[in-house]
Amino acid sequence: xxxxxxxxxxxxxxxxxxxxxxxxxxxxxxxxxxxxxxxxxxxxxxxxxxxxxxxxxxxxxxxxxxxxxxxxxxxxxxxxxxxxxxxxxxxxxxxxxxxxxxxxxxxxxxxxxxxxxxxxxxxxxxxxxxxxxxxxxxxxxxxxxxxxxxxxxxxxxxxxxxxxx
Amino acid sequence: xxxxxxxxxxxxxxxxxxxxxxxxxxxxxxxxxxxxxxxxxxxxxxxxxxxxxxxxxxxxxxxxxxxxxxxxxxxxxxxxxxxxxxxxxxxxxxxxxxxxxxxx
Lengths: 165, 104
Description:
- The complex is a heterodimer of chains A (about 160) and B (about 100).
- With about 160 residues, chain A is mainly alpha-helical.
- Chain A has six helices and no strands.
- Chain A has helices spanning about 5-25, 30-50, 55-75, 90-110, 125-135, 135-160.
- In chain A, helix 1 (about 5-25) runs antiparallel to helix 2 and helix 2 (about 30-50) runs antiparallel to helix 3 (about 55-75).
- The longest helix of chain A is centred in the middle third of the chain and has 25 residues, at about 55-75.
- In chain B, helix 2 runs antiparallel to helix 3.
- Chain B is elongated and about 55 Å long.
- Chain B is built from three helices and no strands.
- Chains A and B meet through helix 1, helix 2, helix 3, helix 4 and helix 5 of A and helix 1, helix 2 and helix 3 of B.
């Protein structure tokens, strides 16, 4: 008998795998960006099924919102008509071989390692916030500094120079 | 629903991302594939966090760890997009096959 959460897991994981497959195979690059959105929302569903409601929210906000929009802007700022011939390069058979080998090794390792599993249980969002701002306050601030440096660096990199280059 | 489901999903998604990085020619598509691989790591992590039978404290730590992974991924994406735009402005192309000026 298949439980309801397993059915929901299979729905969410088919969204993730289907979206990911379209991202790496589809010819039109804008469709690939929207397939990435589908995969990210499926991942948010996986997070919900693993009792991580805050992470699901963060996933939808950051990946579903910010990341896909930033990628679409990058596509808009570079020339779209160039992408027609830019999808796959000549090392495609080698890439299939390498990724299938890695997949086989990982699946074999997963099956060969007996991993004791238990009933999942949820932690409250309040506990997560208390832990984030008390036990991990300094790494949190360092992460904000990393984001600040990355954003300033991005602005400096794409800024137009005086001579217009 | 056990850990092994999460592990299988994570392995499949990671291999898809690896294929995309190796076989795609546009820098933006390679970036998207890297995001897929980061998501595979997060799925693996959340599977272990929720279904391994850890205590409350370690479970909270695991979720905090995933928040940090997402933060670093966002920072990496911003920088990578900036570099891609810069390369596009200099070379008028985002084809990674043409980026061979370091070739000896």
